[in-house]
From TrEMBL:
Position of the signal peptide: none
Protein name per its UniProtKB record: DUF427 domain-containing protein
A Pfam family the protein falls into: NTP_transf_9
Residues in DUF427 domain copies: 23-114
Record organism: Nocardioides bizhenqiangii
Length: 122
């Protein structure tokens, strides 16, 4: 099955810019991310999403998931669950390992669902 690949434009803009300041991500009281190298992706009418480098992420808190999704603008996303003292937060993190040409900056970076973790910009 061939999946569509769409390019951002006036009707569906996508921008990726450096995020101001420091970003931390915590789950279950555990700091998972502490970075000054985050990127903010703004896509059309959707809420902005912060993407963080793996090098600034405690990858020992993440467990690869079997889940996947597809965005015609960004590509194939893979998922991670977060292990906390309180249990597992399934599919709380996603990443585009090999994104489409429109968003090469987010390759391999991680994004977190805001309703499952606490994301703070300092």
């Amino acid at each position: 099955m061939t999946r569509p690949i769409l390019k951002p434009g006036a009707l569906h803009p996508i921008t990726v810019t450096p995020t101001d300041g420091r970003v931390t991500v915590t789950a279950g009281g555990r700091t998972i991310v502490d970075t000054t190298r985050a990127l903010t992706l703004k896509e059309s009418v959707y809420p902005a999403v912060i993407y963080v480098p793996r090098e600034d992420t405690d990858m020992s808190a993440l467990e690869p998931s079997e889940s996947a999704s597809y965005c015609p603008y960004k590509g194939e996303a893979s998922y991670f669950s977060i292990r906390t003292d309180g249990g597992l937060l399934p599919d709380a993190v996603w990443s585009y390992e090999d994104p489409h040409d429109a968003v090469p900056e987010i390759a391999g970076r991680l994004a977190f669902y805001r309703d499952r973790v606490e994301i703070t910009q300092h």
